[in-house]
Every structure is written in structure tokens, then in C-alpha cells.
Amino acid sequence: MKRRVFTVAVFVLLWATAGCANKTPLVSTPVVPAAVGEVKLSTDDNNNTKVKVEVKYLAPPSALSPPRNAYVVWTWTGSGNPEKQGVLQIGDNRKGEIEFITPAQNFDVIVTAEESADVRYPSSTIAMQTGVSR
What we know:
It is built from one helix and eight strands; from the N terminus they run H-E-E-E-E-E-E-E-E. The chain is mainly beta and 134 residues long. The protein is globular.
């Protein structure tokens, strides 16, 4: 009887977590020490990685020293140049999120503070970062 209950409990636990996204915390740097965030990963129908970056307590880029105009999110697989995924918009509540899809399965997510949202390469002003894998 105990083995049956254990087997059912394991099945229920696996079933309950099967649809959950893989979550990894973003690590803030001294540029934005109060910021916290996480990266959530899931898989789409084509086996691509769906990525959702959520942050809170992130200072507006204009409040940085020196002031910046945008936060830009990049992915980097460790080879080649980082790929720009988009601009992370921060609301008055100091929260923001961005979603994108990448074919990569193991990569770094980097949030940089930039002088312009139109940059082609990341600056050295890293606000948050983490490595993820699905």
C-alpha cells in the first residue's frame, strides 16, 4: 500500500511540474544593486526556447550614473557576437518584462544599459546577467 501511495505521489508531482517553466534568477551588478529578476524558459512547438525576462526594482536608465537611455537584452551562446533580443521597457513601478524566442538551448542572458536603444553591440555597462539551460 505504501509503495502505491508513493508511486501515485511521484506521478502527481511529475505531472504538476511538467508544464512549468524553467526559472533562473538574474544576477544584478553594482550598476543596479537593488534590481531582482528571473528568466523563465519553456519550449515552443518547433523545439525553440521561449524566454521571458522579468525584472523589478530596476532603476530607470536615466537615473544611472552616467545616465543611459535604454536597457537592452542580449543572448550569447559563448561563440560569436551576442544577439540583441530587444529593449526592456521599465514602467513607473520599476518593473519590466520582455519575451522572445531563440533556437539556442544553453546561453547567457545579459541586460545592458545603453546610450541608445538602436545599438548593434552591447556596451560594457552590464546591469543584470545569468546563464540558462533547458
